[in-house]
Write a structure and sequence with these properties.
Helix content: 55-70%
Shape: globular
Radius of gyration: 20 Å
Distance between the termini: 16 Å
Number of domains: 1
């Protein structure tokens, strides 16, 4: 890789696999954890996403740090990456609410949900709680672009708060924090952003040894952590879960990125497309699953279909709906909004950007 603009197709493909893991976890949840709950650990896809976010933002924008002239471009790219397709997913959810398919709605958090503001209530679109944390990370990284020293101080302070929150040991629901300071700003999940930053740093300076071995360790570690969690040996969404899933995700990402840079690893176009559609899959799969369940409930066949077949249909619907949303809306919208005529691009390294 000669610049951060190089597209890491293997990492992109892994993002698609992580999105499918989340889809399987949610399909399993709504069905009452059938098949011995083997898909519950699919929530590790979220841990992977957080590490990956820290990695990609740092990889793509590390040369912007300390150069405030790049701040506008950075913020624009973050906003258009998150909000347009998110609002489309919200609109689709609104249609399900209007039709009565989705009934449990808390109107208190509608405005906060619309703009991904932190709140004490679960957001209207359930999965968007992770985007609230993403937006916090984007804003703090923006301070590093404003000033390198400012960024170091802010990120160091953030790390101290996260460690202090972790030592408090309080059990929380990350999608409904009691304290916006300790349970949101200082949420232990944010250590995974830090892991991603560290991975980007070693990848940029080409200091990743035996990358394919590291990738294998990461994959095996994620599988072992899932087994430990399913067996009840570590707490679901607990500190050990976050640390292990996050740490092994970091290993896998470092291995993939370094191996691809050395020409040791590639993926085919279908896997790359799945990765490109991962954000849309993540956003729209739950409404799609709700719609399918409503159809089966209305037909009276929901208790007749075998659990494995129902899981397959729900997961497939969620993934296909996400790919359709990506192709029909996300991709053309991003292409239009990323038109160079719409933003001022400064510096040779802004000529092209890795999808993030």
């Amino acid at each position: 890789m000669t610049s951060a603009s190089h597209r890491l197709s293997t990492v992109q493909g892994a993002r698609g696999i992580a999105a499918i893991a989340v889809v399987l976890a949610h399909a399993s949840t709504v069905l009452g954890a059938p098949l011995h709950g083997i898909f519950r650990a699919g929530h590790a896809g979220v841990d992977f996403f957080f590490v990956l976010s820290g990695f990609i933002i740092t990889l793509v924008h590390h040369r912007d740090i300390g150069h405030p002239s790049f701040l506008t471009s950075y913020l624009w790219r973050r906003l258009i990456r998150i909000y347009p397709v998110y609002w489309i997913a919200l609109a689709l959810l609104g249609l399900l609410i209007a039709s009565g398919i989705v009934r449990e709605v808390d109107p208190v958090g509608v405005l906060a949900t619309l703009f991904l503001l932190p709140e004490h209530h679960p957001p209207l679109l359930g999965v968007s709680w992770t985007l609230q944390h993403e937006m916090l990370f984007y804003l703090l990284f923006a301070l590093a672009i404003v000033g390198r020293r400012l960024g170091i101080v802010v990120l160091a302070t953030w790390l101290v708060l996260i460690m202090a929150s972790s030592m408090r040991g309080t059990a929380i629901l990350p999608w409904a924090p009691d304290s916006l300071l300790w349970d949101f700003v200082a949420a232990p999940f944010h250590l995974q952003f830090m892991m991603g930053i560290a991975v980007a740093a070693v990848v940029v300076i080409n200091r990743v040894p035996v990358p394919r071995v590291l990738l294998a360790i990461g994959i095996a570690g994620i599988a072992c952590t899932a087994t430990l969690e399913d067996a009840g040996w570590i707490a679901y969404l607990g500190l050990a879960s976050k640390a292990l899933f996050g740490g092994f995700s970091a290993c896998a990402i470092a291995g993939m990125a370094a191996a691809e840079r050395k020409g040791l690893l590639t993926v085919d176009a279908a896997v790359t497309l799945l990765g490109e559609a991962s954000y849309s899959i993540y956003l729209v799969h739950y409404p799609a699953i709700a719609m399918v369940l409503a159809v089966f409930a209305a037909s009276g066949t929901i208790n007749i279909v075998p659990a494995w077949l129902m899981m397959t249909m729900l997961a497939t619907t969620g993934v296909v709906a996400g790919i359709a949303l990506h192709l029909l809306a996300e991709r053309p919208i991003l292409k239009w909004l990323r038109n160079p005529a719409r933003i001022t691009v400064k510096g040779p390294h802004h000529a092209a950007r890795e999808t993030a």
